[in-house]
Amino acid sequence: MYRSQWKAPATGCEDAYLDQRYRRPQDRYLRPILGCLNSTPFKRLGYKTPAEVFEIKLMEIRNLLEQKTGSKPCTSVGVRSRLAAEDRCHLNGMAMRDGRPAFVTAVSTSDIADGWREHRRDGGVVVDVDSGEIAATGLSMPHSPRWHDGKLWLLNAGTGEIGTIDPASGTFTAVAFCPGYLRGLTFLGRYAIVGASEPRENNTFGGLELQERLDRENVSPRCGVFVIDTVTGDVVHWLRITGVVTELFDIAVIADAHKPSLIGFRSDEIRRVVSIDDTKIIG
What we know:
Layout: H1 13-18, H2 30-38, H3 50-69, E1 91-97, E2 100-106, E3 124-128, E4 134-139, E5 142-148, E6 151-156, E7 161-166, E8 171-177, E9 181-188, E10 191-197, H4 209-217, E11 224-229, E12 235-240, H5 269-272, E13 274-275, E14 281-282
Antiparallel strand pairs: 1-2, 2-3, 3-4, 5-6, 6-7, 7-8, 9-10, 10-11, 11-12, 13-14
């Protein structure tokens, strides 16, 4: 019996994901799905292309999540023509308030693929999730928005500053400066704990106010953790990380931990550590 078999053209969805631009670690989960769709007979796909089937199923999952959680994805940063996996505005952070998404940050309002890179210096925005309206503009690569103690905090990474946003006026008020690309924020009482990174591949933060300030202060960028008193703006503690680790992406507090330690998988320490349960480790 003849079976109609649809083959993806050279520009089909599978090839797009196998393109060099998309060879990221997370894409390895998509390849078997796309491969399965591309090898499925056209008739069994309802005479739809694999890309159309993939989009339909993705929307079904999205609608199911909306029904179960009551939340909707933030699809509007400025003017979005459509949803596309093209990293247009570089939406990168979300602040929760009362257990629900309240604000998100994006590097720009660009609506073209990879367009955010041209607006790193002052194109950053904060978007109110409920209304979909832009709450603040003129930021430089904002990251890690957090709602804490009745205020919206974020890291203005392109200037190296941590501060607060007044959603009513859109004003950013800097509280402290740290010599690095800030990304990752959490709080412990009155103290903000901030992650800082060095530039990638021995480059500089060219085009950003951060690099200009580092040059003025005659200091090199650092990778590490900074503890900031949110009342005084003072950096009260810091941990500088050197070696192969040059970037941090998020920060978390392990509550009620005593003498915590980091054990590398390639070090001799892991051979001598015995784990008794989730809370006790004997070395």
